[in-house]
Write a structure and sequence with these properties.
Number of helices: 12
CATH superfamily: Aldolase class I
Strand content: 5-15%
CATH class: Alpha Beta
Order of helices and strands: HHEHEHHEHEHEHEHEHEHEH
Structural class: alpha/beta
Shape: globular
Bound molecules: iron/sulfur cluster
Length: 364
């Protein structure tokens, strides 16, 4: 399925000269079967900013502080969900710190509102959203057990976890030295468990955190291996590291545009059956170039909530985005948090399937 590229050939793609790239770009565009770029209209619900990890690039994590909320409460969540409904959002994205409930203050808070764990709380919220609204939950809460994955898959349309990189050495550097959950082996095991459970899955690479070209190739090959076995990867995000004030990695250089474009070309060659996603708020001026290199999805775009992971960059307005891509004869197409090819009873549990079918009719 990966055009039978060897690792060496893949590495050559990341190190070729301009003429080779132009040829590859031409091939990618000649082989395209449609000119649609997809996105999902979502609401981002960061249930907690507490996290067991301390990644060198993070501005999302917060320490326990009496002045701040430990966990978003149900009332606030459903006020926002009402708003999302008015705006026509179809995805409720739960993305938040990993193993937050290992923190005793978080656990106490959860117990006070009637829950035994974050998984327990996410299940309750997802089930309520699924039952009462035309909105589908998608959860990315870091590593959880296989049983917990199974449990959440009964009320989630899809789930996600960034692989980031397979480079184990970063576990000893400023990047991930205090982030046990970023161990590549644990993350690959998690993605494998999602495959065993037939959960439509989103993963991706974080580019520019100290990984080498070989690591980028290796990361894509590991994802490919899991997808060949379980056929559950619906999209691969190519996310660029952004430098920010007040992060331990503030002096790290950002990856160059050329590196990102090359990686997009390689990913689209290796994954003709998977969407390649570029976060539009991180690359606003360059989106057309990424599309030419094979990107075909912009991920979740929220009309109401910010990108809490990169709060300094706003989502582009959907109309502007549309105008932009129309200029190269592409069209913008709304999709659900689960891709069409996974909308069946093999991949979606009964309750999720019923709601997804209804929503699919609405947006098509
Ligand atoms: S796992 Fe996510 S929230 Fe936690 S420290 Fe790392 S980047 Fe921040």
């Amino acid at each position: 399925m990966n055009n039978e590229l060897s690792k060496n050939e893949a590495k050559q793609i990341l190190t070729s000269d301009l003429n080779t790239y132009l040829d590859l770009i031409k091939q990618i565009n000649q082989n395209k079967t449609n000119n649609k770029i997809t996105f999902s209209k979502n609401i981002f619900l960061p249930l907690t900013h507490i996290c067991q990890n301390n990644c060198g690039y993070c501005t999302f994590k917060q320490e326990v502080d009496e002045t701040k909320k430990l966990v978003m409460e149900e009332k606030e969540i459903f006020t926002q969900i009402q708003n999302a409904k008015k705006q026509g959002c179809t995805e409720a994205l739960f993305a938040f710190g990993e193993s937050a409930d290992k923190n005793e203050n978080v656990m106490e808070k959860l117990n006070n509102i009637g829950f035994e764990s974050m998984v327990d709380y996410v299940y309750y919220l997802s089930d309520k959203i699924l039952t009462q609204y035309e909105i589908l939950p998608h959860t990315n809460m870091g590593i959880i057990s296989k049983n917990e994955l199974t449990y959440l898959s009964t009320v989630n349309a899809s789930m996600g976890l960034m692989l980031e990189t397979t480079n184990k050495q970063l576990m000893k550097t400023i990047v991930h030295k205090d982030s046990p959950g970023k161990d590549p082996e644990k993350r690959l095991k998690f993605i494998k468990n999602a495959g065993k459970e037939k959960i439509p899955f989103t993963t991706g690479l974080l580019v520019g955190i100290g990984e080498t070209i070989e690591d980028r190739v290796d990361s894509l090959f590991e994802i490919r291996k899991l997808h060949d076995k379980y056929n559950h990867i619906q999209e691969i995000i190519i996310q660029n590291f952004k430098t920010k004030e007040n992060i331990p990695m503030k002096d790290y250089p950002e990856p160059s545009v050329i590196e990102l474009l090359k990686l997009t070309i390689l990913a689209s060659k290796m994954f003709p059956d998977v969407s390649i996603q570029i976060p539009p708020n991180l690359n606003q001026d360059l989106l057309l170039f990424f599309i030419m290199c094979g990107a075909d999805d912009f991920g979740g775009i929220s009309p109401i909530t910010q990108d809490y992971i990169n709060p300094e960059t706003d989502w582009p307005a959907i109309r502007e985005l549309e105008k932009n891509i129309n200029s190269i004869n592409y069209t913008l197409k709304e999709r659900l948090p689960v891709y069409d090819k996974y909308i069946n009873k093999t991949y979606l549990k009964e309750k999720v399937y019923e709601k997804t079918i209804k929503l699919q009719k609405r947006i098509n």
